[in-house]
Amino acid sequence: MKNKQALYLTVLIVTFLTSCKGEPAKEINPTETIEEKAQRIHKNVITIDTHNDINVDHFNDTINYTQRLDTQINLPKMEEGGLDVTWLIVYTGQDSLTPFGYKKASKNAMDKFDAIHRLCEVYAPERIELALNSDDVRRIHDSGKKVAMIGVENAYPIGEDLTNFKKYYDLGARYISLSHNGHSQFSDSNTGEKDSIWFYNGLSDLGKKGVEEMNKLGIMIDISHPSKEAMKEMIALSKAPIIASHSSSRALCEHSRNLDDEQLLLLKENGGVVQTVAFSSYLNTEKHEARDAYMKEVYSKIADSLNITLHERSEIKTLSDIEKKAFFKNYTEVKKIGKNLVANDKIAPPAVNVSDFIDHIDYMVKLIGIDHVGISSDFDGGGGIEGWSDASETFNVTLALVKRGYTEKEIAKLWGGNLLRVLDEVQAVSESL
């Protein structure tokens, strides 16, 4: 009898202590495997990927995200992998700081806004819906549909008319980056590190006004591409928390797109969040370059056998629109063949994988705390790693987090809770202003 009482008391104590940590009592299941635990957690939490690029050619009556395309992100792959929320990106590359450049860029941005709205309102309203705040995210998720949100990568197409921030907000944009690869009219880019040429040594006067405008509207400020000095100015000026929509740790991988410890600590002090990005060259440059060199040879042999020309990245911008479309179609096919060829190739250098990705999460959680770290992929924009190469493999990230010892409460924060908390705070600041 005493042994039974002692056992009962032990179970009560363990249950109480576990609940105090924020874990549900059902976590105590001695027969549950790690895989089963990860599956349960993956189903329970809302999974949010804050950066997925799009091509407007995949948003028409005959080809769209209702189909399982070769794209890394689409509805079938989200459903297969249990990815609940995708931030679809209105991206525009950097061009000349002229009225002509702004006008051309504006059309590109509007085409992408239109494409996202068509997906949600015409092609698949029963499967995906556009969210504008955290309440929308939870409501749509509870209804069983997938959630779309909109981020703007590069404010360049806004031109010099600050009222366009409101226009983008009304179209659904909930974060905006003031620059991309190249200095914009608003901000220096991280790319200035390459040649030490800076336009403003941070933000331009227009960029400072842009920060103020985003605060007023309730748009999250994204610091993933701007320079370090620009990021520091944004934090000093902003009345609301900021985000890095797709960046990793510079301490683990020396790349100008990553955030160093000083930046990460400033982000913590600001109350923001860094969305760790599954971009191989930002996670482990040495592994990425060794694998990349090997794969280039494989792709080259495949292209030669198919009589296809593979262009260098720097050459792509010189191609006509028709040539670009043909190139990307061919390149996708060559990559697919190459991936299958090296699947069992024992001499191929190892690819950057989910474990390397979790290393960055671990490091940043240790440095700035679990409340300031999140997850992004940069799918269809160059992202994707072994184990999380597209949205259908999203569960592998949760499984890796469980294996590293993260609890359900912590995983919920990493997978989107932190991001939604920042969005709430940004919108609360907007209301107060």
Topology, please?
Blueprint: H1 2-20, H2 34-44, E1 48-53, H3 75-81, E2 85-91, H4 99-123, E3 128-130, H5 134-142, E4 146-153, H6 163-170, E5 173-177, H7 192-195, H8 205-217, E6 220-222, H9 228-237, E7 243-244, H10 261-270, E8 273-277, H11 280-283, H12 285-306, H13 313-316, H14 321-341, H15 354-368, E9 373-376, H16 395-403, H17 408-432
Parallel strand pairs: 1-2, 2-4, 3-4, 4-5, 5-6, 7-8, 8-9
Key words describing this protein structure:
single chain; 433 residues; alpha/beta; TIM Barrel; 2 domains; 6-stranded parallel beta sheet; 3-stranded parallel beta sheet; 17 helices; 9 strands; 50% helix; disordered N terminus
Q: Gyration radius, to the nearest Å?
A: 22 Å
Secondary-structure-based class equals: alpha/beta
CATH fold assignment of the largest domain: TIM Barrel
**Largest sheet geometry:** 6 strands, parallel
Can you count the helices?
17
In the CATH hierarchy, the architecture of the largest domain is Alpha-Beta Barrel
Estimate percent helicity: 40-55%
End-to-end Cα distance, whole Å, is 65 Å
3D shape: globular
N-to-C order of helices and strands: HHEHEHEHEHEHHEHEHEHHHHHEHH
Mean pLDDT, nearest integer?
A: 92
Binned strand content: 5-15%
Number of strand segments? 9
Looking at CATH, the homologous superfamily of the largest domain is Metal-dependent hydrolases
| Count of spatially separate domains | 2
